[in-house]
Amino acid sequence: MHPDFDWRLVRSFLAALECGSLLGAARALGSSQPTVGRHIAELESQLGTVLFERTGRGLLPMPMALQLAGNARAMEAAANALTRQVSGADALVSGTVRISASEPVAVNLMPPLIARMRQALPTVQIELVSSNSVTNLLRREADIAVRMVQPDQASLVIKRVGKVSFSACAHRDYVRRRGIPRQPGDLAGHELVGLDRDKSILRGFEAMGLHFAREQFAFRSDDLNAYWQAVRAGLGIGFVANYMLRTDPEVEPLLPMLDIPALPVWLVVHREIRSNRRIRAVYDFLARAIAAAL
Q1: Chain-centroid distance, C-alpha 111
Q2: What is the pTM of this model?
Q3: Residue 139: per-residue pLDDT
Q4: Residues of the chain with pLDDT under 50
Q5: Residue 235 has what pLDDT?
Q6: Where do the H-state alpha helices sit in the chain?
């Protein structure tokens, strides 16, 4: 037999043997009559023998064709089994997916979403990395990232899945103790929870025509989880993402007229691995779930 034997020839041979004609074999295989004819001719050439007698009524198998039929069917069965095994392995969504998310998202937003994901994808295990850097995705230290800043690396595929809105808020104990601010200017007479080196809250006040000094914030931290816990502890009025605010009914939203800019949320995956079925399943689930949660 020729060392470059084409296994597709066996399929055409068996189809011709079972159907008794080139036309019938072509229909069974979803191919064309000339193609099946070429396959059989090539197989006969490689084997050095005639397999069918061509007649006006179709194909008559020669003794050699009948002798080869058993092995050919065994070969076809093995090929079909291999195809099913490969297809099954590809269809099975299982294994580990590593997700990177900023600290407050990893702590407050992701756990309930992952709990639902485990019900939808029970054979997928999740590793959650709390990180604000996109470099861990570029270095393949994570499969998927949730980010508030749009990455610009060409090797990454990004999708905007929602936006994070913010509200001024305070614990009920603080409100009972200090009262409710009725307008933004009233914040000057309240204890405020602010950021430390991050100037975004101060810049937000300036955009509204309000001027606050850093020292007017009774508590300052750039750790957003510590910031949230300070608000929950009643240290003062803070500015918190609404998805965090909804987790504690004791913290009340204030000053609904404040126009605090929302932050877009981007779902990021490396271009080379987005076709992985396991990662794609988690990516698609997160795209829907994050949008709904926000």
Answers
A1: 16
A2: 0.63
A3: 62
A4: 84, 87-91
A5: 95
A6: 8-19, 22-29, 33-47, 63-91, 103-104, 110-120, 135-138, 172-178, 200-207, 224-232, 242-245, 277-293
